[in-house]
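We emphasize that the prediction below concerns an isolated chain of 852 residues; any contacts that depend on oligomerization or on bound cofactors are therefore not represented. The input was used exactly as deposited, without trimming of termini.
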Amino acid sequence: MVGRCKPAWQKSNQGLSHVVMWHEVNEAVDVSFEDATKEHRRDAERSGEEIERLTVDENLGDIERACLFLASNAHPLQHSCAIGKLPSLFNEYGTKAHEAIFPTLTASLDEYSEHCQIQAAEALTTILLDASLSKEAPDWFFPIAFRMINGVRTPEVMKSWLGTMRALVPVVPQQMLTEDLLQLALARAQGEESKQAHVVASSIFGAIAPFLDGKLILQTYLHKAMGLCQDTDSEVRTCMCEQLNNISRSVGLNTFMIFVFPELNELLRDEELVVQSAAVESLVQLLGFLPPDIRQIQVLPFLRSLCDEGNAAMHVCLARLLGDIIIKMVPDLLEDEATLLLDAYKILSQQANEDVRQLCAYNFPAILKTIGARKYSTMLHATYLQYIQDTSPIVRCTAAACLHEVAKILGKERTASYLRESFYSLLKDPALLVQSKLFGILHVVLGHFSVSNTQSKATTYANMIPSLLQAEKSVSGTNQWRMQRSLLQAFPLLAEYLTSDQIYENFVPICFRYMADGVPPVKISAALALAVFLRNNCKIQQRYELAQKVVKEYGQGQSYWSRLLYIDFCESFLRVASSRMFKESFLELAINALQDPVPSIRMRACQIINPLRTVIRLPDDVALLERINHLATQRLNDTDREVVEAARIASDSQKRVFVLDRDPSHDHPSAQDEYEKMDKLREDEEWNMLSKEEQEEKRKMDDNLQRAKIESLRKSSADATGRSGSTTSASDSSSSNASKKGSTSKTNAPRQGTDSGKSSRSATLSRTKSQLGTSGFTPPASSGSAPTTNVPSSGSNSLSTKRGSLPLSQKSLSPNSPPSRKPPSVASSPNPFADGTLPSNSQVPRRNSAKR
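Result of the prediction step, given as a token string:
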């Protein structure tokens, strides 16, 4: 099963009981409902006494519970549970755990089941690999390991404890090696001892050799070890083959040539294939130790004969080791001799055995690195094409997995020349296994086709589009979401190699499709790819259309998941684009997410509060900063606990950054200064990637939109003043008629009428100013003044959702203007680009009128 662990009872063959801490048997194993049901049925069959015996006090500490479970009369499941927790207990309690647990473990280990004994050996080996362990640990573990290998055990148990002893050898004192282990090995190497005793002696001889003097080895056990090479049992001879590398390097070359090399030659021609394979592996390990003349005269002909005459099993062994063989031997060989070795590799690569071909494909990068990129076209290109076109998906998968290593060795020019068609072929491969491996390295492979010639580079990547689209089509119809995510993770690199039109027409729809229908990890990868595509687009109209589609379908989406994905998109866009571009299109709705009715969205929005603050530029954006701070404070008093916690984390993080930036002891630039510098570079890059025509159209668009805004503001103010003036005239007329009918005029009556009119007009002007302030529009501020805004009250709805508010394209793309209501004249204002292809004035995003 791929990606899943076997249930614990399949690993241990022991019956499980959820009464005894079921979740502690293996915390990494996911227990399904069916598994728990089976265990419940097993418990139903147990007697009350058995269930009572398996039940323990929940208040016991970790060490007390481990001691209880390690007792000899405990259940096998309890043994397994306690042994599995030994590494964590020693890591946490150290000496205290040893003093409490080891007496019980040592006394009961022989009575454990075979599985528990193997598990105990693996647990001690894991503890030994922990660098933070006490220096006394080897002294703790050596006696128990020594006792286990000194008895009669099953082959599996003995193999596990020999592995523990090999881990102990480098860290125990040398006195223990010579007085205990060496003496044990000499005693177990006697001819009358059993096969298992000889295996133990062979393992100890090889394990202690690197830590003993060569003369001591020669005097004490070298002859014994060479005698074991002639043992009648193939298992002993195989074990000795595995020890020859350590023994040979310890005794030196001269002693090796006299005593060890003759034995190795005999083992290489052993009648047992398993012994011969182990001897070949030992020979490959010793190639760097052998002198060059021995490698040329004796080793090379022997290996060549094995390739020609060996059986299928030996071919598998040679194919697995051939990469190491060629790397170690070719530098000292003549060209003709290297060609012979390379021919042997080609012969193996054409074997009918699938495993042999797969191993040859696995070793291809090592062989190419040894031969050199210059000889690839004449000596190895045909072999690699053979792997790409192999009938076995396993072989093609291996060839695809090493494609990036081959491309790195060849360089960009040769990669574009020789591997282009192979890459296209792998992208179209019908086997999902092959595509899965290729997608995993796609983000690395794409860059290796970027040649220096601009025209060739453009042609290469343009021809790559159909293959990429076909690969995406094949994987989109499956439920392989990891493959989909791997493919989308490579999409951002396409912005560097393809034109804006190619990306807009072919890959942007794919991103939107996965953002709508993919699983959450795929949605996030698609959002990141779309953010990169939008930022690197060189067409003003395409930028605008993409931004508006994201805003309409996700920022203003009806479903909560679409608005949640909008926050993920904003987070990705902040990482790749400048703050100016973000503010023009996405900031407004990102701030509105802090007061979304769905708690999950508010919580997610709290996580980007600090990134949103980084785009603020004072004093121009003081209103936006006040709004962000206001909503952040509201979230600290939110009704949802998770939202409050997210807001608190954001607040604490902001405080730490503030203290660090203001710390006078730091002489380096603050994080904000570095961010602003990087942001300025991004902004310049986004402007320079536009053509001169696009830049000019952008300037005109910004100027016309700014003028339209100011004109609509003036017209709205004039209409409000006119309506107030009409009301005042009617009131004055009524007062005049009333005075004519019956009142006696006084000498100061005209004066009072004038004063009354002035007072009425003053009130009208006040009402007009009030309407102008509440409309959200402000006249252009004088130089150095900051814009003002009305901060929404707690719990108020987003201004962008109220009737009569400005479209998002006009609000979010004008970062210097506060949220405002749209005057009626804006929607009917003439389109300054009616004769062009740009959108209408009410839909075109606005930009700061200040020209670059």
